[in-house]
Amino acid sequence: GLALLAARNLTALQPGRAMRALHGSEPGALASGVDVVGVKVRTFVLSALLAGLAGALYASVVGFVSPSLFTLAASVTLLAMAVLGGTGSLAGPLLAAVLLTLVQYLDALVPGLPREAARTLQSYQEDVYGLVIVLVVIFAPRGLAGLWQRRGPAPGPEARP
User: Fold this and answer.
1) ∠ CA(31), CA(35), CA(41), 5° rounding?
2) How far is CA 8 from CA 2, 11, 93, in A?
């Protein structure tokens, strides 16, 4: 929650505006006076810092960290969350993480779903996530965030005929 709040506030500040400018057009950002290399380095450092904090938090919750905890399935799940969530929004990746996490608990969420059916669905979880990644990259390259932004704002009274 704290990282999400910090990221939301960052978008309103000068560094966030520089990141958005760079995301939109690197030559345009350079022409506008944005220190392109500096923004890229600071963005990389910030993302590494957040990843490190997430790892430290995970280690404190789990109690220990081992390479065996970080499997291919875990990597595919995280990649699916990022791709499905999309870019340019904080809500998109958050929604994708919630949706894909809920899939793991289908047997508890869907009353009457036979345990065997839930286990079968969960055994194909990585395959489904891989399919989601491919479909999103092909049909909705900006993910849920892009689909939401494409909808645009609801028309106000002045827009109605």
Assistant:
1) 140
2) 10, 6, 13
Please provide residue 68's backbone torsions phi and psi, each rounded to the nearest 5 degrees.
-70, -15
Closest to 78 in 3D by CA, of 64, 93, 60:
93
Tell me the domain boundaries of the chain: 7-68, 71-152
**104-110-111 Cα angle (round to 5):** 135
129-155: per-residue pLDDT in tens? 888 889 988 988 888 877 776 665 555
- The packing angle between helices 14-24 and 2-12, to 10°, is 80
* pTM for this prediction: 0.70
Residues 130, 84 contacting (CB under 8 angstroms)? no
The pLDDT tens digits for 10-57 are 878 888 889 888 888 889 988 989 999 999 999 999 989 988 998 899
Q: Dihedrals φ, ψ of 38, to 5°? A: -60, -40
Quick one: three-class SS letters along 140-153? Answer: CCCHHHHHHHHHCC
The structure tokens 């944005």 sit at 34
